[in-house]
Design brief:
about 350 residues, 7-stranded parallel sheet, two-stranded parallel sheet
Length: about 350
């Protein structure tokens, strides 16, 4: 198998750290790893570094830095993204990083003769205002109309970026070759180095005397262990090396983490912090109406005081919404198979979440 160099944008982040770890241990064809991020790369997972790593500090909005980083690279894992589901998200930043940043990566790949581009999208790109998705596949789900995304501008900008990546498939690169692209759509992820999901739930529970779960009825959420998601990125790049027929496509990414509501899923990670997980839950709809009322108040004062909160209405509504997906396509075409069972994933995640301090 032809050997070469890979570039990971966002490699210093949550998913990126795990992708880099697997590139070190499970990608014999990779000789060198470059990491392009806004912060210096530090090995936070403690794995053995078998291959040279070059940390490049830069923004995906800096076209010159991107083009320099892509020189001599065979494949790019584009993981950089802006996540903002606050009450009032920064739409300008979302468009800049997620859309323009991705376009800059594509152009840098073309000029740098990069052969393969694997993009990190999200299942949120197919979730419309109704919210509910039951065992969704790439053929049974569709892209919502403009401004009808359940997770608002965040999901809409990720979808625009995904569209750019998939349209770039087969485009010419500087040396006369072709750029091959595909997009992976993980569900919400948990595990070591998580900052936004379980970590935020634990933070809220530990710092609020009034923490209560919310009764979400029969709704369930699908979560994926981050190392399994990272493994799918390697499977995608490996398969794309020898099979151009899979290029230009999108794939859902999930594993065998049990389907349950958010608070049931979080109970083991709350217990290790001494949180009472058996408190009587709050009724769902009164909480939703409270947040709508809060939104109305903040909408009036936001232009003057710029006061914002980290929990948007979409996050509250998601607690009462079923969102499940199938990764059969990835398993069939990318030969993806989760490398960690749920029990293994939970045990390793517990070790991380137990260390959180607030």
């Amino acid at each position: 198998m032809e050997k070469g160099t890979v570039l990971v944008t966002g490699g210093a982040g949550f998913l990126g750290q795990h992708v880099v770890e697997l590139l070190q241990s499970s990608a014999e064809h990779v000789t060198d790893i470059r990491i392009f991020d806004m912060e210096p790369y530090i090995n936070k997972l403690g794995y053995q570094e078998r291959k040279p790593v070059k940390s490049i500090i830069g923004s995906v909005l800096d076209t010159g830095a991107l083009q320099e980083a892509c020189k001599g690279v065979d494949a790019v894992f584009h993981l950089t993204g802006c996540v903002d589901t606050r009450m009032f998200p920064d739409v300008q930043k979302l468009n800049a990083v997620n859309v323009q940043g991705t376009e800059n990566v594509i152009q840098a790949c073309k000029k740098g003769n990069v052969k393969r581009l694997i993009y990190c999208s999200t299942v949120d790109v197919v979730i419309g205002r109704d919210g509910h998705v039951f065992n969704g596949t790439e053929t049974t789900t569709s892209i919502p109309q403009k401004s009808c995304f359940f997770f608002g501008p965040y999901a809409e900008t990720k979808q625009k970026a995904e569209e750019l990546v998939l349209k770039a498939n087969g485009s010419d690169i500087a040396n006369g070759g072709k750029l091959r692209t595909l997009s992976l759509r993980p569900t919400v992820m948990y595990g070591e180095l998580d900052k936004y999901f379980v970590t935020e739930i634990v933070r809220t529970a530990c710092t609020s005397k009034f923490f209560r779960p919310i009764n979400s009825g029969s709704s369930v959420l699908q979560c994926t262990y981050v190392r399994n998601a990272a493994w799918c990125f390697l499977c995608a790049e490996r398969t794309l090396r020898g099979d151009n027929s899979i290029a230009g496509q999108s794939f859902f990414v999930c594993d065998d983490t049990p389907l349950t509501n958010m608070f049931e899923f979080s109970k083991p990670y709350l217990r290790v912090h001494g949180i009472d997980v058996n408190k009587k839950p709050l009724p769902f709809w009164p909480v939703v109406y409270l947040f709508y009322f809060l939104w109305c108040i903040l909408w009036v004062i936001f232009p003057v005081f710029q006061f914002n909160i980290s929990i948007g209405i979409c996050s509250i509504l998601s607690l009462g919404t079923t969102m499940t997906f199938s990764s059969n396509k990835a398993q069939t075409l990318l030969l993806y198979k989760p490398i960690y069972s749920h029990k293994q994933a939970q045990n390793m995640s517990l070790k991380f979440y137990r260390t959180l301090k607030f």
